[in-house]
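REVIEWER CHECKLIST
Item 1: Sequence provided? yes
Item 2: Single chain? yes
Item 3: Sequence as submitted:
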Amino acid sequence: MNSTMSMNLILEGLDIFDEFEGNEIETKIELYPKKPDLFTCLLKKNIEESKGFLFKLIPKKEEILNWTYYFDRYSYKRWSKFVEAYTLIYNPNKEKFWIKIKELPENIKSKNEILIRKENLVRIERKMTKMDSDLILQRKIKELGKEIFFLGTIKRYKVYLLLQNHKSGRYYSVSADRCQYKKFTLSQIEIEYKGITKIRKIKLETAELKKIVTQEIFILSKFLMKKMGNQFKLKKTKQTKFEWLCSCLDQEKSR
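Item 4: Structure as written out by the authors:
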């Protein structure tokens, strides 16, 4: 069963249509100090106090949510470089886990620095076991016809809000996280498209839709950097969590 993992709770009860089903559209911002809870609380306050801003909190959906999950990252080699194969997402205390497959990001070549990736997310309704991970690994090796490597486990704590552009009817999540791999840590903000109110759905060509959505993400990121830039060091980035993990492994080797 496909699932929008992180936002399924906060989206519950909203009549939303995904204009880019099977794709992830987002922008990333480095966050320092690495304090995702503080950042999200201050951002919420800024949005509530900003009159006339395009984006707003949704009534009865204003709460800040959070989760902690573990991401087991698997890879294969292409031309001596690691390429993302798939990820197992789980929490040992939760009766569910996910298999996530992402393609390499399509970079929108503009100052907006938006990343678009095809994404397949399968949810399994039980605790993940060692047998599950072993069977999935063998199946993926057979599917790809390549040797697949386990790279490492990232522990990810994520805090997020759901916002709506009140003119277009589109929903976006704004999240701040803290990722840990051994002694390495990373904090990023992600602004991600989640869908549009069904009653506002319009028929447009994919290229035109991408242009509209990337512009809306850019407006939101510009607001965020302006309002929060005095309290945090914020920097646009295209680094994915997989690329960050690979850089951690390179640093370990060089020691």
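Item 5: Key structural point noted by reviewer: The chain has a mean pLDDT of 90.
Item 6: Recommendation: ____
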